[in-house]
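tool_call: predict_structure(chain=1)
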Amino acid sequence: MFQLFDLIMASPIGVFVVTVAQGALYAALAVSDCEECGFNDLGKLLFGGLIAAIVVGIAISIVHQRVKRRSEGTSPFVSIRSDRE
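tool_result:
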């Protein structure tokens, strides 16, 4: 799985996606830069990001489990053993 991710990130498409994400992040930082923002606002943003990360993680886990259940019926190998005795 890590090798697939590494290949995607090294490809031109992966580099493009990272560049776009970096540009969007810089734009968000430039837009959200305010002098009146205090520590409480930053704490709320951090807490909101934590909640968003947890929700995304749970969603990915659910999708992964559903895909795993669907492919459970087929076996990628052929067994030479017989189930009958």
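agent: The two ends are 39 Å apart (CA to CA). Proceeding to next step.
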